[in-house]
Each structure stands twice: as C-alpha cells, then as structure tokens.
From TrEMBL:
<protein>
    <recommendedName>
        <fullName>CoA-binding domain-containing protein</fullName>
    </recommendedName>
</protein>
<dbReference type="Pfam" id="PF13380">
    <property type="entry name" value="CoA_binding_2"/>
</dbReference>
<feature type="domain" description="CoA-binding">
    <location>
        <begin position="2"/>
        <end position="113"/>
    </location>
</feature>
<dbReference type="InterPro" id="IPR003781">
    <property type="entry name" value="CoA-bd"/>
</dbReference>
<dbReference type="InterPro" id="IPR036291">
    <property type="entry name" value="NAD(P)-bd_dom_sf"/>
</dbReference>
Length: 119
C-alpha cells in the first residue's frame, strides 16, 4: 500500500484531514501525520515538521497555499511520487516546483479518490 503523508493533520474529527487519515487507514495505507498540534489521528501521532520520512509515496495537502511555503523543502526531502492538492490547498507555485523535481501533482480530493478506488 501507498505510505501517505498528511500535511495539515488535525485531531478534530470534523476536519477533512482527519477524515482522510481514518479512510486511508481503513483502506490499508500507512500514514504519517504532520501538523501543528500534538495528539493522534487514526492510530498515528501528529508530528511536527522534523524527521524526514523518505519512504513516502503520496503527500496529501490540507494546508492553504499561504501556509505551505515553510514546508516546501520538507516535502521535497521526503521524495514523494505525487502530491495531491485537496480542494482549498491548490498552489501553482508548489505544483511547478514539484514537477521540476519529477513529482506528479494532482488537484483532487483524497476522500473521493479513495471512495472510487482511484487512489
């Protein structure tokens, strides 16, 4: 299964990042939660930007464009195969940087991709 880094993870069950974490686990994916607050989501701790996980297949983005810049180098260091920009997280600058580094980008909803078997 695809190890997925959730950027913008939250313990709040009404947040889409929280729903995605739980759905990813339900579909058998390993997850890494990165967020500002501590806690745990779907059995995985919420980490702050620190340890670089280099076995990431997908980054699923739940941060708005204005909050993504500080994570650019971190994202590139994880060497993901793709970045999913969920609704509200679209970022043309990061998409361009990703493409220049051989990372596929997708403007899509992780929840929909999982629900329809397209993840």
């Amino acid at each position: 299964m695809k190890k997925t880094l959730i950027l913008g993870a939250s313990t709040n069950p009404s947040r889409y990042s929280n729903k995605a974490a739980n759905m990813l686990r339900k579909h058998g994916h390993d997850i890494v939660n990165i967020g500002l607050s501590g806690g745990e989501v779907a059995g995985a701790p919420i980490e702050k930007k620190g340890e670089v996980h280099t076995d990431i297949d997908t980054v699923t983005m739940y941060l708005g464009e204005q909050n993504q810049k500080e994570y650019y180098n971190y994202i590139l260091a994880t060497k993901p195969k793709r970045i999913i920009f969920n609704p509200g997280a679209e970022n043309a600058e990061l998409e361009q940087i990703a493409m220049e580094n051989g990372i596929k980008t997708e403007r899509a909803c992780t929840l929909v991709l999982l629900s329809t078997g397209q993840f």
